[in-house]
Amino acid sequence: MADNKTTLDKLKKYPLASDLDDDEYLQQLINDSWVTVQDDHIKPIKQEEANRLLVLSELYVDTLVANGGVQSASHLGESQTMFDWSKGNDPYMLRYQALVDQFGRSYRRGRAFSRD
Length: 116
Fold this sequence. Notes:
Layout: H1 8-11, H2 15-18, H3 23-39, H4 44-66, E1 70-73, E2 80-82, H5 91-103
Antiparallel strand pairs: 1-2
Helix pairs in contact: 3-4, 4-5
């Protein structure tokens, strides 16, 4: 199977990754998420995109955790919105799951069998 992993150059074009100086950390995220892409049997034409989305999802979650779970805040009004982890509203993960639904097969959500 061809190696369709995403690259540091592609990731660095996204705001979540552009300011990170630790290329070793980003490469480890690429390698770790690549295993998931392969496990989800995503078609080769979409593997790079899927790999990139998983890395961006990890960076998104890392950013939220580093901010104490605050999704948005305002200074003078002293209001803030906490990220609701139960809603599954990570935009990168939602796009990844859509890719799996269309171009792969994941067994994490269970399997359905029918007999005629």
